[in-house]
Write a structure and sequence with these properties.
Chain lengths: 297, 863
């Protein structure tokens, strides 16, 4: 310690806004830095590990369970999963979209700011200084990026696992048993993944707002998941009639329409509209709140 | 101001909730309707001498006063209870409603006469008499109430029959019912009438079994005190509650599979076909598309018969019928109510009553609930089953031999009567054609979609093939009385990979009598459907020799089937238009509105931050003036604090816990906003994210690291997050100050408190900031480290930088700092050089002055 004396020299040249040399608000917290900061977390790795392993677990489950029920007798999406890679991927998405992916997205977004607050590192980032809007923007982009990666990696891995396990076959539509050529479905499958991502926007935005509002990462994640549960419960109340169309989770399964013989996109459009509506306002609130917040963690 | 805004928000939320709850409580709920149970005695029979007690319920109109009456009849096998919900709904809508169990059903006495004019029709006339006496019922004349009849199936037929026989009835809404019961049970698609028809044995059996013997024990109140169990008599098990002549007729036809002239006559006495021109009142016919018992043709015939009298008629084909489907209960109620409102209450204009013809079509699935959706296509005119236009679609296919299996088994399946619910509405296709029993003729793939509405027709030729007689072994052609029984179907074939779809599971049975040459020809009317054939699909006309629902010849035979003309004529009704689904305007409007709201939220919350620079203070590292910050409860954490720190100073910020030191430092870092006053660093005012903060290094209230990264990564990533050049960081010096050695490459979560502390101080020194703020820097350090730290700080300040050390450890400040600022309860108590502070207090005893004593004096806590 005592030898460091010589190195301590005053850096010369200050800019007009009084900042230190080389400081520019627009260069703070680069995305790559934030990605690295989040990537090595056990939480991130475990979640991706789970999402990548789940299709294989399902494959094993179907292989082990094969023979207990004669194939082709039922047209439920779960029974059609062994028809081929695309059917399997659709099944994997349908069983995970309502909960597992919600948790993944809520985790990446809800944890984003709240965990920094709980580690006390948030105050050093803000004092370094990273402008608050910029910090939030970079965090939002990275959290959404991780969420998108989570939502995309599951069906893609399921497609790979299902194709290896059950072959590259045409899609059989649940319910009617009709068959659609695999190559026709592939672009639609991209639409499905994109929609699954957009339909998680509300969860992401709410988790982000809560993340900004609380120092407890679990609170933010739990709050966002809680909203999904409440919304799902309300969705079951038929007396609400068409009001339910505006519940954030109401259209979450609309992507099934894209895999029908005659794809219909109106439900998905409505779902996108509802998701964008909620998330834009929630994100705006998050920024507004964070801007004026006293950081006391 | 912020607090006020929060209050406004809360008040707004609570107001909205309160308004919602009040609206929910005050919202008019459906009026309460109470049924009055009645036993109404009527006299009927050919001689009007048979006394029958009908079990009835009367529902007074909810609005009070005199209202039109509606008689609500139940279906076969039901009772007045089956229509109770519908009755309550109608009563709530302001009708006096009477429901009753028809003779032979429920708790009414008498025997089933199949809506005979001598029995059930006379009963209904006397019910109309009864209704006319009610004070709740509006009268057209004395003894003539304003009355309508509605009902489904058996109840729909009584509505039609009663309308024919009682001129007092003003409007009817028969649902899924028959025009000719003989034709319904013995249909023939060649149009030669029921005596040539094929017996619909499964439906007929189900139909008659539902009028079977009353269950032995129906609980108390059943019958006239003869509730005790007794074995059923032979006559009861044979005929149930049917009138003996009906029973005998059924037993005869069911055994032979052929309709006799007398059976046809009996069945027609119960059918609107027997009363042509007598139904002259407004009639709304609701017929199910999924109905193999009373297919759409019956409604068509009824509509034509009523329309011939000039009375208004509307026809609707809904998604339902005896084979299941959605049922559309709510929509049927609306239609029924609309019809009675128009023709009994005479309210509502004709324009909104909808077109004369409505067809329920598949609207896909609701994307939210995944349930099937119904669309209602309407047209102003009802064209009948032959449509308003015809298209001829060429068919091709060779002559094909088909076999009638001995005993008629196994049989092909189109629909399973009585188990329509199995199909679960739409989607599932039960149809199955047995190999070798089916001849098919396909069109080429369609180049444009084709919406078929009605009955297609095709001309077919059949030839009997000689078959060796199994019993005699001779090669002689077997005589099958020159008759060929076939079932015609119109399939929708999508492609090789998908099973062909039989729309609604309907078939058209036909019987062709062959001539001397063993061949015969006929024009076959295929089942009436509303079905859309998509582009690329084919039409397929199939003829099978068997069908599960019908009785077919037992003798084995082979027929050769060919088309007499290679085309099928399909009816279309282009005028049927689905009301354009309201283009969900909010798909675009909602996100746009929300984006606007979001933008407003963001812009309105933006504070104009002009960089207020005071050039005179450019060389003053820190000036705090009038700084004030209050807690939420109004208590001031920092109260009008002012002091200045000059270049090269090591300033000690002293104060007991809770003095406001940390709050001050947080404001200094731009983490919290002062309520009053300002902080200037080198003349630049501190606001959250102010660029001048890049010249501030800070360590306040403990370290903040990412626990999953090691010490080195933490420092490097922190520096990268500042966006400044790596060469400015001075990592080597900082790491030396941290003195962590090999521990630098371990995850921070494994560090001790002291290690984190040193790493945090090193982080604060990254980039050699001009102003270094350290809060309790020596916590967790051992004495040698404390001494080293002290030296580092003093050297740091000697190079023209400024250090602020906040501490409650007085000795620390005394040894490190040149100046001190003492705070207590948020206020500045004193400021000056340490030596001045020490000099200000005269020694009490020989032990000399310590800063501790000065401090305790200053905060007024003398011991």
């Amino acid at each position: 310690m005592s030898d460091s004396n010589a190195a301590l020299t005053v850096p010369a040249g200050l800019s007009r806004n009084g900042s230190a040399r080389g400081y520019a608000p627009g260069r703070t917290l680069p995305l790559a830095v934030e990605i690295v900061r989040q990537f090595k977390r056990r939480r991130t790795l475990v979640m991706f590990g789970l999402l990548l392993a789940l299709p294989w677990i399902l494959v094993i489950a179907f292989k082990v369970g094969a023979g207990s029920a004669p194939p082709g007798t039922s047209l439920r999406i779960s029974d059609l999963a062994v028809e081929g890679g695309l059917n399997f991927a659709a099944f994997a998405l349908s069983v995970s979209a309502s909960f597992l992916l919600v948790i993944a997205v809520a985790l990446f977004c809800g944890d984003s700011v709240a965990s920094e607050a709980s580690w006390s590192s948030l105050r050093y980032l803000l004092a370094s200084p990273i402008p608050r809007d910029r910090l939030l923007r970079q965090k939002l982009v990275v959290a959404m990026g991780y969420s998108a990666a989570a939502v995309v990696c599951l069906p893609v891995m399921a497609l790979l696992a299902g194709t290896l396990a059950f072959g590259w076959n045409d899609v059989r539509v649940p319910g009617t048993g009709e068959t659609i050529a695999a190559l026709d479905v592939l672009p639609r499958f991209g639409v499905v993944i994109g929609y699954a991502l957009v339909s998680q926007f509300v969860v992401a935005a709410l988790a982000f707002l809560l993340s900004v509002s609380t120092d407890s990462p679990l609170g933010a994640v739990g709050g966002a998941v809680g909203l999904v549960i409440v919304s799902n419960i309300l969705q079951a109340v038929e007396a609400l009639g068409s009001l339910r169309e505006f519940l954030p989770t109401f259209w979450n399964n609309a992507w099934l329409d894209a895999l029908a013989p005659q794809p219909s996109y109106e439900g998905m459009l409505k779902g996108v509209a509802v998701a964008v509506t909620y998330s834009a306002i929630l994100v705006a609130f998050a920024f507004r709140r964070f801007r004026s917040k006293d950081v006391v963690s | 101001m912020k607090r006020a805004a929060r209050w406004v928000t809360w008040i707004a939320v609570v107001t909205v909730l309160a308004v919602g709850v009040v609206a929910w409580l005050v919202w008019p709920s459906a009026p309460d309707v109470r049924a009055q149970e009645q036993m109404i005695t009527v006299l009927d029979g050919p001689g009007d001498d048979q006394r029958v007690t009908l079990d009835a319920s009367f529902f007074p109109p909810a609005g009070g006063g005199r209202a039109p009456a509606v008689l609500l009849a139940h279906g076969f096998g039901g009772s007045k209870q089956s229509v109770r919900d519908a009755a309550v709904r109608l009563a709530q809508d302001g009708y006096a409603v009477l429901t009753w169990s028809a003779r032979g059903f429920g708790r009414s006495s008498g025997q089933i006469a199949l809506n005979s004019p001598d029995y059930e029709v006379k009963d209904v006339r006397q019910l109309v008499d009864w209704v006319a006496k009610r004070p709740e019922v509006r009268l057209d004349a004395a003894g003539d109430p304003r009355v309508g009849i509605a009902g489904g199936s058996y109840g729909g037929a009584i509505a039609l029959m009663a309308a024919a026989h009682d001129p007092r009835i003003d409007a009817i809404v028969p649902q899924i019912t028959w025009y000719d019961l003989a034709d319904a049970l013995f249909p023939d698609a060649t149009g030669q009438g029921p005596q040539n028809g094929v017996f619909k044995r499964m439906w007929a059996g189900l139909f008659f079994s539902r009028g079977g013997p009353a269950p032995a024990a129906l609980g108390p109140g059943q019958g006239d005190g003869e509730g005790e169990e007794r074995p059923l008599t032979a006559e009861e098990v044979r005929c149930g509650r049917f009138l003996p002549e009906i029973c005998d007729m059924y037993q005869q036809v069911a055994q032979s599979g052929r309709a006799t002239a007398s059976a046809v006559e009996t069945l027609r006495r119960s059918s609107p076909i027997s009363v042509p021109g007598k139904i002259r009142i407004p009639t709304l016919l609701l017929q199910g598309q999924r109905d193999s018992l009373f297919p759409l043709g019956h409604a068509d015939a009824n509509a034509k018969a009523v329309a011939a009298t000039g009375a208004p008629v509307q026809v609707a084909w809904f998604d339902g019928g005896h084979d299941g489907g959605n049922g559309e209960v709510d929509w049927l109620h609306e239609k029924t109510l609309g019809w009675f409102d128009r023709h009994l209450k005479e309210i509502g204009d004709a324009a909104q009553a909808g077109g004369a013809f409505t067809v329920t079509r598949d609207g896909g699935r609701d994307p939210g609930t995944r349930r099937p959706l119904q669309l209602h296509a309407t047209a102003d005119g009802y064209p009948g089953l032959s449509g308003s236009g015809q298209t001829s679609v060429p068919l091709s296919g060779p002559d094909q031999p088909v076999a009638n299996p001995p005993g008629g088994s196994p049989s092909s399946i189109s629909a399973v009567p009585g188990f329509g619910g199995l199909a679960g509405g739409s989607g599932v296709n039960l149809s199955l054609d047995m190999a070798g029993q089916s001849a098919t003729f396909d069109s080429s793939p369609l180049t444009a979609p084709l919406q078929v509405t009605g009955s297609s027709t095709v001309r077919v030729r059949v030839t009997l093939e000689p078959v060796p007689d199994a019993r005699t072994g001779s090669g002689e052609a077997k005589s099958t009385a020159g008759e060929v029984t076939l079932f015609a179907k119109l399939y929708d074939v999508a492609g090789a990979t998908q099973a062909p779809v039989l729309p609604e599971g309907l078939v058209a049975p036909l019987r062709i009598t062959t001539g001397a040459d063993g061949s015969g020809e006929a024009t076959v009317t295929l089942p009436a459907v509303d079905h859309r054939f998509d582009v690329g699909h084919r039409l397929r006309v199939a003829f099978t020799t068997t069908d599960l629902g019908y009785s077919t010849p037992a003798a084995p035979a082979v027929y050769r089937v060919a088309l007499a003309s290679p085309a099928v004529t399909v009816p279309t009704h282009a005028a049927l238009r689905t009301p354009s689904t309201n283009p969900a305007w909010w798909i675009w409007a909602l996100p746009l509105a929300s984006l606007v709201v979001a933008t407003v939220l963001l812009l309105a919350g933006r504070r104009r931050t002009t960089d207020e620079h005071d050039p005179e203070l450019a060389s003053v590292p820190l000036r705090i003036s009038g700084l004030t910050k209050a807690y939420r409860n109004g208590e001031r954490a920092v109260d009008d604090l002012s002091f200045t720190v000059e270049h090269g100073q090591v300033l000690g910020l002293l104060g007991p816990n809770g003095a406001g030191k940390t709050t001050t430092l947080r404001m200094l870092m731009g983490l919290i906003r002062p309520d009053g006053g300002e902080i200037r660093i080198f003349g630049h005012r501190v606001v959250p994210g102010a660029p001048v903060l890049s010249r501030l290094g800070s360590f306040v209230e403990g370290p903040g690291f990412l626990p999953h990264l090691n010490g080195r990564e933490n420092l490097e990533l922190y520096w990268k997050a500042t966006g400044r050049p790596a060469e400015d960081a001075g990592f080597a010096e900082a790491l030396e100050i941290a003195g962590l050695g090999k521990a630098l490459d371990r995850a921070v979560r494994t560090y001790s408190q002291g290690m984190r502390q040193r790493l945090a101080i090193a982080q604060a020194m990254l980039g050699l900031p001009d102003l270094l703020v350290l809060d309790e820097p020596t916590n967790g350090l051992d004495p040698p480290q404390i001494r080293e730290m002290r030296e580092v700080l003093i050297r740091y300040a000697e190079q023209g930088r400024t250090v602020i050390v906040s501490s409650h450890l007085l000795s620390e400040v005394e040894q490190t700092c040149s100046r001190a600022v003492v705070m207590h309860r948020g206020r500045l108590v004193t400021a000056g050089t340490v030596s001045e502070l020490l000099a200000s207090r005269t020694p009490v005893n020989g032990s000399g002055t310590r800063l501790e004593d000065v401090f305790l004096d200053l905060i007024g806590n003398t011991t």
